Amino acid sequence: MATALRVSIVLDPATAALLDASRLAMPDTEIRVHGGSLASFSANGPSVRWTDVLICQIDPTNPRDFEVFERFVHDQAGRMPVVAAVRDLTVAVTRRVLRSEAVDVLPIPFTPDELHQAIETGRDSMVRDSSGGPANAGRIVAFVGALGGMGTTALSTQAGMIWAEKASVCLIDLDVQFGNAALYLNMKPSLSLADLIDASDRLDIELLRSVADAHPSGLNIIGCPPDIVPLDALTPEFVDKLLDLAVQTYDIVLLDLPGAWVSWSLSALQKSDAVCLVTGLSVPGVHQARRQLELLDANGLGERTRIILNRVAMPMFGKIDLTDTEAALRRQVHFVISNDYPTVSSAIDEGRAIGAIKVKSRVEKDVRKLVTTLAALVSIPIAAA
């Protein structure tokens, strides 16, 4: 069965409100309409990766608008055909748009036949560009702690080892000051994120692969710099490029983020298909998690966020009551990871998976459930529990 072509249509909210969605149905085509700007769409990593062909409304008379359009089309050349949708379309505007590497121009308002023709032009362009083979379309899952000491790195490394059983996985430690991901895997990589930062002007897939170090479990890791560096050693532009290359290389990219919000944090989170906010049952943990949730919601990341309660002492009988915690968070708790300090501590000390330390432990079952659920959320296969 052929895979449906995935088309995103980005229109300003006023135009999107007038569109009759019931007339968009086309054979072998899935269409999503986004009310907003190209800038907001391009910042939504999951939506960009989902899209095969983009139809985007632009205003060619607005220099800033057209500059954003040209840059996006150039960055997506060879991967995502882009069709411009323009009001009051003229021959001069058509010529200008087509010089920007867009594959077609669509007038607003457009008819179903005109839309179908533009989509087919995009489809044909994809066929011509696919001679070198389709690019990988991996997924990104970010782990961030509500505050320090929540066990975020332990969770990201253990989840990564489980995920690596059935998919190609890379964990990138973006905590450039106090990252411990490599240490938790008992690894001492000869290269690190610092080497990618130093070579940012020639960063490509081959360089990325050469820096990633493989754990015996199959998990690849790009460790934090060996020396403490300023948080602003990373930039939003570098993080964007790094993650774009990573999802072309691996099925799953896991991010271990610092607790501090810096200029590039939002870039990493907006690229992520899921954001795992790790906290505990302590009053400070719940309080800081609530603050983080408010910030994530304000940046349109609330729907992608999953709350993980880590190191929870489970009752002997029945289930733990999370009513008060969820009331304080004003959000559902999605995952509860049981507390098993001896097993997890031994796994960290030896750089091994929890299951290699204690077979069928409750904490391993919880982490496997976390991975299975996240895999379904981002549509990537993993090993059965």
Characterization of the model:
This protein is an alpha/beta fold. The protein has two domains: 5-132, Rossmann fold; 139-378, P-loop containing nucleotide triphosphate hydrolases (Rossmann fold, 3-Layer(aba) Sandwich). Helix content is 42%, strand content 18%. The chain has helices at residues 13-18, 38-42, 45-50, 63-75, 91-98, 112-129, 152-163, 181-184, 193-198, 205-211, 236-249, 265-271, 283-298, 323-329, 341-350, 354-357, 362-378, and strands at residues 5-11, 29-35, 53-57, 82-87, 104-108, 139-145, 169-173, 213-214, 220-222, 252-256, 274-279, 305-312, 335-338. It has an eight-stranded mixed beta sheet with strand order 8-9-7-10-6-11-12-13, with helices on both faces. Strand 8 (213-214) and strand 9 (220-222) form a beta hairpin. Helix 7 (152-163) crosses helix 17 and helix 11 packs parallel to helix 12 (265-271). The longest helix is centred in the N-terminal third of the chain and has 18 residues, at 112-129. The two termini are 29 Å apart. Mean pLDDT is 92; it is low at 381-385.
* Low-confidence parts: 381-385
CATH topology name of the largest domain: Rossmann fold
Number of helices: 17
- Report how far the terminal alpha carbons are from each other: 29 Å
Strand content: 15-25%
Number of domains: 2
Helix content: 40-55%
| Widest beta sheet: strand line-up | 8-9-7-10-6-11-12-13
Give the biggest beta sheet. Answer: 8 strands, mixed
From the spread of the alpha carbons, the general shape counts as globular
The overall average pLDDT, rounded, is 92
Number of strands: 13
Task: Examine the secondary-structure arrangement and name the CATH architecture of the largest domain.
Answer: 3-Layer(aba) Sandwich
Gyration radius, to the nearest Å?
23 Å
CATH class of the largest domain: Alpha Beta
User: What structural class do you assign from the helix and strand content?
Assistant: alpha/beta
Order of helices and strands: EHEHHEHEHEHEHEHHHEEHEHEHEHEHHH
Q: CATH homologous superfamily name of the largest domain?
A: P-loop containing nucleotide triphosphate hydrolases
